[in-house]
């Protein structure tokens, strides 16, 4: 069992995450919670300290960060994530921070028709998630991890289910290459400049035609032109997925510990801070 602990004064986002996970209980492809507990530390010079502990499923194989997975398997994993997002969106939630670090890897189980050669993926970390009914006309929420954020979210603070689709596209790129999206740029300011300039994350040249088309649709800059999750599930890149032969060994080598050092993906940021600092004007020049 995994435990996420925070002190009482910093527990707001943890409590929100717990409430959302409770509403997503038993949803396939979503990490499950076993409850929330509070603990008081021993009194020291004036009183104890309260800590909130969120109890969740433990992922024995970590997350998808910086792996580099064969395209044949990425297609199956993309379908798993899409199915989970379909359930999340149908229940009125937007994750707002889809990235490999927030997709956990579990041993293969009952995955509803998925190939036995694949591990099971579950979406985690709902601290930044929001409910669609809270998004009124003109609402602006600057939230997420910049490298995985679509233009409308990074620049204008517009949040919609289409934001998760863009994040999925970035996650697919990272699964395929083992590199971060926008990997040629080290600083968030550089990434934001590219986004403002109208560019999109680089799609690998060696990717199949179906894969390139899938990613190009994930990276449609206008969120109204980005396909809905249900439509992506019908895209041939994932809909035609099938494994020839047993590739369990190859997949296990990718996810096995084996001494592989995994770098964590960037943390969630508030792009608005870049604009308030005066850097946005320079980026738009």
Automatic annotation (TrEMBL):
Gene Ontology BP annotations: signal transduction
InterPro entries associated with the record: Kinase-like_dom_sf (IPR011009), Plant_MAPKKK (IPR052751), Prot_kinase_dom (IPR000719), Ser/Thr_kinase_AS (IPR008271)
Species of the source: Linum tenue
Family annotation (PROSITE patterns): PROTEIN_KINASE_DOM, PROTEIN_KINASE_ST
Pfam families assigned to the protein according to its UniProt record, in alphabetical order: Pkinase
Domain of life of the native organism: Eukaryota
Domain Protein kinase: 1-238
Entry-linked SMART domains: S_TKc
GO MF, any single term: ATP binding
Name of the protein in question: Protein kinase domain-containing protein
């Amino acid at each position: 069992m995994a435990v996420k602990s925070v002190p009482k004064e910093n527990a707001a986002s943890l409590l929100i995450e717990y409430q959302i996970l409770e509403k997503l209980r038993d949803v396939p492809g979503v990490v499950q919670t076993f409850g929330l507990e509070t603990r008081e530390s021993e009194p020291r010079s004036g009183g104890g300290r309260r800590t909130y502990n969120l109890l969740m499923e433990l992922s024995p194989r970590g997350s998808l960060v910086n792996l580099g997975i064969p395209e044949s398997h990425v297609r199956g994993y993309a379908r798993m994530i899409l199915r989970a997002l379909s359930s999340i969106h149908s229940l009125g939630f937007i994750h707002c921070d889809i990235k490999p670090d927030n997709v956990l890897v579990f041993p293969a189980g009952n995955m509803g028709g998925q190939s036995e050669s694949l591990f099971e993926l579950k979406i985690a970390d709902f601290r930044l998630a929001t409910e669609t009914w809270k998004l009124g006309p003109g609402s602006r929420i600057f939230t997420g991890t910049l490298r995985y954020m679509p233009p409308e979210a990074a620049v204008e603070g517009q949040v919609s289910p289409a934001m998760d689709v863009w994040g999925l596209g970035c996650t697919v790129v990272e699964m395929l290459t083992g590199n971060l999206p926008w990997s040629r740029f080290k600083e968030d300011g550089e990434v934001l400049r590219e986004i403002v300039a109208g560019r999109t994350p680089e799609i690998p040249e060696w990717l199949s035609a179906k894969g390139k088309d899938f990613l190009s649709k994930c990276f449609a800059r206008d969120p109204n032109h980005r396909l809905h999750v249900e439509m992506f599930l019908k895209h041939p890149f994932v809909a035609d997925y099938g494994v020839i032969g047993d590739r369990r060994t190859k997949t296990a080598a990718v996810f096995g510990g084996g001494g592989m050092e995994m770098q964590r993906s960037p943390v969630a940021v508030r792009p608005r801070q870049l604009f308030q600092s005066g850097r946005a004007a320079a980026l738009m020049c």
